[in-house]
Amino acid sequence: MRKVFKATLALVVLITVSAFTTKSNITDSGYKIGDVATDFELENIDGKMVSLSDYDDAKGFIVVFTCNTCPYAVAYEDRVQGLNKKYADKGYPVIAIMPNNINVKPGDNMEAMKTRAKEKGFTFPYLMDAGQDIYPQYGATKTPHVYILQKEQKGNVVKYIGAIDDNYQDADAVKTKYVEDAVDALLNNKEVKIKETKAIGCSIKV
Amino acid sequence: MKHLFLILTFSFFAFGNQYISNQNKITDIPYLKQDLKIVDFDGLEQYLATKDKSKTYVINFWATWCAPCVKELPYFEQLNTTYADKKVEVILVSLDFPKQIETRLKPFLIKNKLQSEVIVLNDVDANTWIPKVDKNWSGAIPATLIYNSDKSAFFEKSFDYKTLETELKQFLKQ
Questions:
Q1: With pLDDT > 70 as the criterion, what percentage of chain B qualifies?
Q2: Which of A80, A86, A102, B90 sits most deeply, having the most CB atoms within 10 A of its CB?
């Protein structure tokens, strides 16, 4: 009896999964693992312009597309701060970029970004993609969305794309720290094991 | 100071109650008569598997804090009503945070009297379940899946009513 139940359940799951296997309407754009990421010159909350090329000593970067107004981004603020504290000195600073259209999300304007950064004591640059032309090149679709870059001869090569870890609700219940694992691998000249992950996030506002 | 706190607390309850009594009632909304369904992804799949195979389903992933999602909800409601007799059913899968279900989601559902069925998906391991919905879904919401026993299509974008209706019509036998 139990076997029959199990078999039925498996069948049901199979049917549902096949219902979920779909034709897709998403254009595949943006960087893939191994692509060289573009540099940029974007305004920081201190009014200065910031580029990746300013960081002579960096071995790479943790680029985080994030904002003030997305609950998922907010849930990760302290963890992003933690990443910068842990890895900036080791050569992988966090570079946060706010990609939203501030006419749609006034809560993400420069003044709001400054206030939030001050409240949270951000130790990393929090840049505004004012022309909204950097995030599409990276292929970021949501906040938060992380790109780990490694500085190589040919430029800043994309080594990881995706989520910070596997539990947005509770930092203490995280099982896999995707970003930390990837940066640790790069620092040890090892291959990044999990190169791409998916997470729920707020669509970037255009 | 202590008095001020008491007064504030009192006025909160007083006004809070008045606020609720002016709103629609839970009993106006069919899926709220029992407790709101809260499932992990396996639970969602199993629930959808129990549904009528002859129908076309429009599954919308949304949350109360997602402005473009909230903006398009009326179109899904309209679709659900307009096509109810054409064997179409809209299911709204909420990704609201569990701690905001009582404080934010339920009041929102009651206030807006959403008639399409709402289910809460609470599954932190998004890297596992997102690709099961669609392998190209980045995880941004709003996102919508339309399927029936013949085919399915996935959309990581916002809809207006006309575009949504056009996509649905691809699934309906003429």
A1: 83
A2: B90
Closest residue in chain A to residue B155, using alpha carbons only: A25
User: Cα–Cα distance between A132 and A97 in angstroms, integer?
Assistant: 10
pTM score of the predicted model? 0.83
- Per the structure, the complete domain to which residue A111 belongs is given by 32-203
Domain parsing of chain B, residue ranges: 25-169
Q: What CATH topology corresponds to B25-169?
A: Glutaredoxin (3.40.30)
Position A29 scores a pLDDT of 81
**Shortest CB distance from B68 goes to which of A24, A169, A203?**
A203
Q: Contact, A196 vs A33, CB < 8 A?
A: yes
Strand order from edge to edge, sheet including A94-98: A36-37, A155-162, A145-152, A60-65, A94-98, A126-128, A42-44, A49-50
Q: Is residue A188 part of a domain?
A: yes
Q: Report whether B161 contacts B83 (CB < 8 A).
A: no
Determine what percent of chain A is predicted with pLDDT higher than 70. Answer: 86
Per-residue pLDDT reduced to its tens digit, A151-197: 999 999 999 999 999 999 999 999 999 999 999 999 999 999 999 99
Q: What is the CATH number of the domain that holds A154?
A: 3.40.30.10
Between residues 96 and 155 of chain B, which touch chain A (CB distance below 8 Å)?
Answer: 97-98, 124-127, 130-142, 145, 147, 149, 151-155
